[in-house]
Amino acid sequence: MAVPTFVDRVTLTVAAGRGGHGVASVHREKFKPLGGPDGGNGGPGGSIILRVDPDVTTLLEYHHSSKRQAEHGGHGAGDHKNGSHGADMILKVPDGTVVKHRNGEVIADLIGAGTELVVAEGGRGGLGNASLASKSRKAPGFALLGEPGDELEVVLELKVVADVGLVGFPSAGKSSVIASISRARPKIADYPFTTLVPNLGVVTAGDFTFTVADVPGLIEGAAEGRGLGHDFLRHIERCAALVHVLDTATMEPGRNPVDDLEIIEGELSRYGGLEDRPRLIALNKVDVPDGRGIAELVVEDLRARGHRVFEISAMSGEGTRELIFAMAEIVQEARKAKQAEIPARIVVRPKAVDDDGFTITSTKAGWRVVGKKPERWVRQTNFSNDEAVGYLADRLNRLGVETRLLQMGAEAGDSVLIGPTDDSVVFEFRPGVDAGAENLSRRGEDDRFQDDRQAAIRRREIQAKLGERAEGETRADVARRIDKPEVYGPTSYEIGSEEDPDVAPAVPEDEAWLEEDPGE
């Protein structure tokens, strides 16, 4: 089996790294058994990045190795230690690489040295319980899981970045023309389909420099897959001009330059997208006696059709200088027009205020919730931890999922599906209800740290009564008076008044004798 040396189309499977998990940890040291949460976060996974490298001219490397996996992020640890970042994987591609989905949708067109594309983004690292702690949740007993990285199949197509493209039948002399006007040295022989890969040459016209490429194996029916032109027609899509190299000394019966031109133009028209490119005609091999004669017969006919025609010989160099400067003139005009183009305005449209970030649809399986936030939160949840599940329920409720379900007619016990169709997480809908006189804590919170515990209630009650205390009355006096108002009366009174506990109560005169009667 022959080993290819030039590959311009590959299918590549890329998988970014998974994010590391957060950790639930409690700081412990001597005399501090519960020093607070100190679980670190997981590190993000590595991404897959495509980068244009001028030294790379083929996709051969990915033809032999079509699967690439980036490094996973490290898990968090106690003592606020975060996990390590997964290393990004840089994949070098040639200039002019087009990245597509399997369905043909273009993701990006990579042109220019150093151009980068993050084709698969690494997963986010999960938060540790130290990052999840809040005023109402001071000691979380759970952490979030790391998210998986992107995984997809992409198609890489190479389209040579050249200013001028040479088209023509096999053995018309395209490779010889490139070798004559540049320092490129393609394979040249006297049989068809000698050139099996596109050739690229750098041409100088005075102080101006441009590039020229050819399309090998272009014959009648190439747009439908005949010959090699079907595989390489894409390489002239970026060209500013096309040069028809017509063979004036072909030995094949029934062929002539005019018919060859019409056949190739028909194939270009069927391929599409090249109608606006200016054309030049190069009648090659005029160094051969029969070739010069045929060229003299057809040159006026071609010029009458509006073409600029050049009689050249790639072997002797005759007419090639005039052809070079004609190509340079077209390329210069194309570059000036490109520079004069007004750059596209970048319009930033902020997200609508009422955009909840999710949608809910009714299906046979239940209510399906679709949205980036809900799906990401589900991936981050450890369903073996009840507190983590409660935290997820609170997040969905704050986002408005529960309210929307009730508005759409969902009832308790209905199935709620979150996530992609083939990998959904199913919940039983249980809308929140008031607990009556007993004020229950929110799901996922620690009741031990609620502000409405008894000690906090007592402090607030004492604080409210401090404004009513008398002169000289302390905070402790206020607390005792609240606890036993019948024992601890007012602490300030006028001596001799009714409030003075040392003053004996007055006895009525008709009962005074009872106290003095010794017989009683």
Molecular structure report:
This protein is an alpha/beta fold and 520 residues long. 25% of the residues lie in helices and 18% in strands. It is built from 13 helices and 18 strands. The protein has helices at 60-64, 129-132, 174-181, 229-232, 257-271, 289-304, 320-340, 372-380, 386-399, 401-407, 454-465, 475-483, 512-516, and strands at residues 9-15, 48-52, 67-69, 89-93, 97-101, 106-110, 116-120, 151-158, 164-167, 200-205, 208-214, 241-247, 279-284, 308-311, 359-362, 367-370, 415-418, 425-428. The protein has a six-stranded mixed beta sheet, sandwiched between helices. It has a five-stranded mixed beta sheet with strand order 3-1-8-5-6. A four-stranded mixed beta sheet has the order 15-16-17-18. α5 (257-271) links the parallel β12 (241-247) and β13. It is elongated and about 145 Å long. The protein starts with 8 loop residues before the first strand and ends with a helix.
Low-pLDDT ranges = 189-194, 433-451, 512-520
What class do helices, strands and sheet pairing give?
A: alpha/beta
Spatial gap, N to C terminus: 136 Å
Mean pLDDT, rounded to whole units?
80
Rough shape?
elongated
* Total helical segments: 13
The percentage helix is 10-25%
